[in-house]
Design a protein that fits this description.
Helix content: 25-40%
Distance between the termini: 52 Å
Shape: globular
Number of strands: 31
Number of helices: 20
Strand content: 25-35%
Length: 725
């Protein structure tokens, strides 16, 4: 059964807050049959049928919208006074009915206020709105690592007034987290009355460190955008020539563009007369996109964007010189729909207008970043003529507003793999409306344009020596090879490196433990921005496990040993940090009078799964090329995680093979550097297309003995097995 069939098979539930008068209805409870014709909904007729306390409706809202055989029943009731409501569940809704039902529900929803403390922000939302969604409307972002699937339990809030009942699933999660009875999951609980909630600090989505630079290859500036100043000869009785034809004559040998924009043609004569036939013509890819009065050749800009699953960064660049004028980073607002691409794909497929919502989030953010960049540089948005985009395959689909559904199922085929050029106006991007948006190509599956950007900026496709590039994240992309052959793969490392599914995990934001070491027989930590610790991020997790492995507190199987097993082999200070946990032993990294930040046995297992995925992908590519570690000249760690990761910690846990430290190099946000190169150089853009066509993709699920390779990769290397200490 495919996704579409599953959607049709599922019962669709819609909540509608219906205002009723107490004197007419008294107490309405679950299962009550309500005579819809008395609710003022424009019902033509109604009748009750004996089908488990359901109501069959036949009504018409506008005189021509007819719903036949649509059932509804009361699923939640209350003592009805002014502003109270009952909730109706509609079942057996067809795709044909769905749009009409949306209008029906919206036409009579009640509104309730919700106040978010300690911020004092108050908004009014319809009944049935989830707390998480209301918070987003108030400009408050709540951490939802599982994408609102009620699995992680990290989006909890305290309900001060307006407490709503929790269902069995929510109750279990709250009980497991040992939270008080007035706490609820913001992704699960809906607003049913006027409500006041307090958002704990640890629940907030913090802005994490965003890497905006990388190691790139210098290119000769030769943009696809051309600006040409011309002084045209005015037409006369002796030389009668149309304005467009006159323009083309003056551009002969430079730009040969057919008429493609009617508005430009309409305004051409006026601009020529007002400028005394002295104009600047702008073209992209040999197409005229703008005509300006006077000489504006020096005002030519573009923007490059790297759209990551978690963060987005843009750069405003002078297309004449290649100079970076402004850098604008931000968190990807799509995180409210899930921390990983699978959660977002699911949301886009299963939720009403899911794809539209995810697409709008990224377009709105890009426009916001454009506004910030031009404000810094004090330029006109219309002087931005081109944008280049890199991102993983899923992010590029969302950016284009194209469903990534295919990527959620075998054989993981994208809708479009090659590079493409789209009009800025078609994507509602706030630059020159005729400007061009160039999206770099994908390689295959989950190996997207961001990997192409890494290859381009690191010049792997030109390297005489074999190099290994790793972009470590939720989906780890790995490339191995040289100018002769490049092989790539994507590994489902999971979100542990982002601090997700880790008991005290968080993003690399203020308050995150990002470095751990042992000094003077005890644990020492570094916290981002020197703040009070809130949790531990991915690099801190790797560090913590690495030092505990070296100390002998964690063995090669990943088990945290008890104090008795250690038998005074570690200092008393370290031993005192070992405590009993739910699934073995835990290790206290930091504690205060009211809080502990732990490394649990489950956390170690999560890291083993993540690092096992990366390492097994590396080993599979090595086997494909039939090479050993000795054949690899250099190991390049890309992306924010790779940039801040200690190479010695990566080696100690076996995340990467046993290479000399001198061979391991961080190259920063190499994907972003690739986007910038493609913006300022048509040659680099051609090279990226060549990379997309020639790089070989290895689907790991088809690799023989991969499961065995993965199982082996989950083990930690023994200290004596590490050549580089």
């Amino acid at each position: 059964m495919d996704v579409i069939e599953r959607r049709r098979a599922e019962r669709i539930t819609m909540l509608a807050g219906v205002k009723l008068k107490e004197k007419e209805y008294g107490i309405v409870t679950e299962g009550t049959i309500v005579n819809i014709s008395t609710l003022g909904l424009g019902v033509l007729s109604s009748q009750t049928i004996p089908r488990g306390k359901q109501l069959s409706l036949f009504f018409d809202l506008s005189g021509n919208i007819n719903f036949e055989n649509l059932s509804a029943r009361v699923i939640r009731g209350t003592q009805l006074v002014d502003n109270h409501y009952l909730a109706l569940e509609f079942t057996d809704i067809t795709d044909e009915h769905k749009g009409k039902i949306d209008k029906f529900v919206e036409s009579f929803k009640c509104n309730f206020s919700i106040i978010f403390q300690p911020y004092g922000k108050k908004i009014v939302v319809p009944a049935g709105t989830k707390i998480k969604e209301a918070a987003a409307l108030a400009g408050i972002m709540i951490e939802t690592p599982c994408g609102g699937q009620s699995k992680c339990g990290k989006c909890y809030v305290e309900v001060i007034t307006g407490l709503m009942p929790a269902n069995a699933e929510e109750s279990k999660i709250l009980q497991d987290a040992q939270l008080p009875n007035n706490f609820r999951l913001s992704c699960k609980s809906v607003i049913q009355t006027n409500t006041v909630v307090r958002i704990p600090e640890e629940t907030l989505l913090y802005t994490q460190k965003i890497l905006a630079e990388g190691v790139g290859t210098k290119v000769v500036v030769q943009s696809a955008v051309k600006k040409i100043y011309i002084e045209m000869e005015k037409p006369s009785l002796d030389k009668q020539i149309g304005d467009w034809d006159n323009l083309k004559y003056n551009l002969k040998g430079i730009v040969n563009s057919p008429i493609s924009n009617l508005d430009m043609l309409k305004n051409l004569s006026k601009k020529l007369k007002e400028s005394d036939f002295k104009i600047t013509v702008t073209s992209v890819n040999n197409e005229i996109i703008d005509i300006e009065k006077g000489n504006t050749v020096s005002n030519s800009y573009g923007m490059a964007f790297d759209i990551g699953t978690t963060t987005v960064v843009g750069s405003l660049i002078d297309l004449g010189t290649g100079e970076v004028k402004a850098v604008v980073p931000a968190m990807n607002p799509q995180v409210v729909y899930g921390d990983d691409v699978i959660s977002r794909i699911k949301f886009s497929i299963t939720e009403s207008d899911g794809l539209k919502k995810v697409h709008s989030k990224i377009i709105d953010l890009i426009n916001d970043l454009i506004s910030k960049a031009v404000k810094v540089c004090k330029i006109d948005k219309k002087s931005i003529y081109e944008i280049t985009i890199v991102g993983n395959s899923t992010m590029q689909h969302f950016f284009l507003g194209v469903s990534p559904e295919n990527l959620g199922f075998l054989p993981y085929v994208p809708v479009i793999q090659e590079s493409c050029d789209i009009k800025a106006c078609d994507l509602k991007l706030d630059i020159n409306p005729n400007g061009n948006v160039h999206i770099l190509p994908n390689i295959a599956g989950y190996v997207g344009a961001d990997t192409v950007g890494v290859i381009l900026s690191a010049s792997l496709h030109k390297s005489e020596k074999i190099k290994l590039a790793i972009d470590i994240g939720t989906n780890g992309e790995i490339v191995l090879g040289s100018k002769d052959l490049l092989v790539s793969c994507s590994t489902a490392a999971g979100p542990a490196f982002e601090g997700v599914h880790i008991s005290c995990g968080m993003r690399a934001a203020s308050g995150a433990i990002d470095k751990v070491k042992i000094e003077n027989d005890d644990i020492f930590i570094n916290v981002i921005e020197g703040a009070v610790p809130h949790g531990i991020c991915g690099t801190g997790l790797v560090d913590a496990v690495a030092v505990l492995l070296s100390a002998g507190i964690i063995d090669e199987t990943g088990r945290i040993l008890s104090k008795g097993e250690l038998d005074k082999k570690v200092s008393a200070k370290l031993a005192a940090r070992i405590v009993e946990g739910k699934s073995g032993y835990d290790f206290i990294l930091w504690q205060s009078d009211t809080k502990k930040i732990l490394l649990t046995q489950k956390d170690v297992r999560e890291l083993q799964l993540a690092k096992g995925a990366i390492r097994s992908g590396i080993e599979s590519l090595k086997k494909n090329l039939k090479i050993s570690n000795a054949d690899i000249e250099e190991v390049l760690l890309a992306g924010a995680f790779g940039n801040y990761l200690k190479p010695e910690s990566a080696l100690r846990i076996g995340l990467i093979p046993d290479f000399p430290l001198s061979k391991v190099k961080s190259i920063g946000n190499a994907a972003f550097e690739g986007a910038k190169m493609a913006l300022v150089s048509v040659l680099a853009r051609k090279e990226s297309d060549e990379i997309g066509r020639k790089a070989k993709y290895i689907e790991l699920s088809t690799v023989q003995d991969f499961n065995e390779e993965f199982s082996n990769a989950m083990m930690f290397p023994k200290w004596q097995d590490i050549a580089t200490k």
